[in-house]
Amino acid sequence: MTKQNINVNLSKIAGGAVQEKLNRAIKDVVKNILDPNTDPKKKRKISLSLTITPSEQRDSFGLATQVKTTLVPEKDVPATILVGKSNKGEIVANELKSGAVGQEFFDPDDETLKDDKGNPIDNSSSKASSVIDMQAKKKAGK
Prior knowledge:
Radius of gyration: 32 Å
Number of strands: 6
Number of helices: 2
Largest sheet: 2 strands, antiparallel
Strand order of the largest sheet: 1-2
C-alpha cells in the first residue's frame, strides 16, 4: 500500500466543522423536500466552496470553507381581491372567498353560510317554508 502525499480529509478539517456544516445543509434540504408547501419536482442544491490562500513563503495555505444551500421556495398562495368604490365613493377591497362574485358558500370552519366576501349571512329572516323536502314522496310511500 502506498502512502498518500496529500492528507487532507474534509470530514476531519477544523475538528470536523466542515462535515458539520455539510450535515446541517443536508438536513435543511431534506426538510425543504418534506415540506408540502414546496414543489417536490424542483431540484435543490448544496455548494461546498473551498477558498485557498497561500502563505507568502509558499509553505502552507489557509483553507476557508463555505457551505451554501439553494432551496425551493414555498408555493404561491392564490387569492382574488374584489376592488371598487362604495356608494360614498370610498375605495374598497375584499377577498373573494366563494369563488364567484355574488355566490354564497358554506364555511366548514365555523359551519355558517357566508356571502362571497366571507361575511356571515343572517338566515333568521328567511322563510322555513322555502325549503323543499325532495324525499317527502319517498317517506310518504314507505
